[in-house]
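Possible regression after last week's pipeline update?

I re-ran a chain I had predicted before the update to compare outputs. Posting the input and the new output here so someone can diff against the archived version. Not blocking, just want to make sure nothing changed silently.
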Amino acid sequence: MAAQQKEAMAFVGASDEAGLERAAHLRNDTVALAEMAAQPRARFVAFCQGAALLAPEGAAPDKVVGAGLQALGPEDRLVQGAGAPIFLGLAEGAPVFVLNLPEGTAAPEGADWADLRGVLPRLDPRAGEIAATARALIAWHQSHQFCSTCGGPSVLAQGGWQRLCPSCGASHFPRTDPVVIMRITRGDSVLLARSPGWPEGMYSCPAGFMEPGETPEMAVRREVLEETGVQVGTVRFLAAQPWPFPGSLMLGCAGEATSEAITLDPAEIEAALWVPRDRLARIYAGEDAEIRAARLGTVARWMLSDWLFPDVTADN
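New output (post-update):
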């Protein structure tokens, strides 16, 4: 049980240590960026159709991009045949870029393409930050190819951190959408829910996008009430996690329910229930016939672990 408790306490994005230096001062220097991309120490990570290129399981971490991601160099076949990369920043003093490769691109021998949501435990904190940044930027460029001011086509600028409209001169920058995800408890039970399309049997914490004019606390109370009919009193912040699917920031909060009856909004979720602590322990142990635990590496998994195993810390 101790090992199970420890693995459940970590989540990608949990570390606030400086892993990737954003180096915003270099983004406008196209000459410097081209020179850096040609340096032997430059590293490139790659995505294809939203999937990340992962290193073989058990491979030694790359000193620049960390563990889990496949690190490519300027001479690699995938880099040579790719278009303009997006500059992510510096790690260990080396420049890091991301490539968005076309559908059907074959992975190098031993590496594989994977949806990040299913492989988060394979990434260390630095690789997690790089992957989240890279995927969010790629998704933003794919959905913002036209100017929202005049409708004309926009072009990449600032190393990939801006899009410019040649027609009207408008500048557009990446946006992050705040999402509250909440661990709602009442006595010795926690509220779990599932959305349509999730893996069979998987339940997690309720979540929802913040609306204009809201604080996180207000959003927690509104979302839980809208989705489940449960009223929430005291709310406190726990932790945050970048969630680049396509560009969110999960704000993990804990809330205390002041009511118990559940009334579902079927347009939002397909099921919700109160789960006692002892049943959640069985779920985490894989011993529940109906419910699967939230994904490893997610802030939801961490929040539930933090409630289930309050005396276990991430580094013990």
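Follow-up from reviewer: compared with the archived run. The radius of gyration is 21 Å. Marking as no regression found.
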